[in-house]
Amino acid sequence: MKINELKQGDYITQQVDNLTVALEVVSVKKIGRRFMVTFSSVFGIETASYHGDAYITVS
User: Fold this and answer.
1) Tens digit of pLDDT for each residue in 24-44?
2) How far apart are alpha carbons 41 and 12 in whole angstroms?
3) Strands ordered across the beta sheet of 11-16
4) CB within 8 Å of 45: residues ≥ 6 apart
5) How many whole angstroms separate alpha carbon 35 and alpha carbon 2?
């Protein structure tokens, strides 16, 4: 899925070492051509910046 199509409540999976971690999209904010995406997981809350046409795996 493209980053610019993400919405609050979507789930992303990420491999950390040999574990699969589920990340929930908390918010998506457009800033110019980039998107600031805030994720929540068992590790806490993190924000990442992406180009809108970047792809991410959604589960």
Assistant:
1) 999 999 999 999 999 999 999
2) 10
3) 11-16, 19-31, 34-41, 44-51
4) 26, 38, 39
5) 11
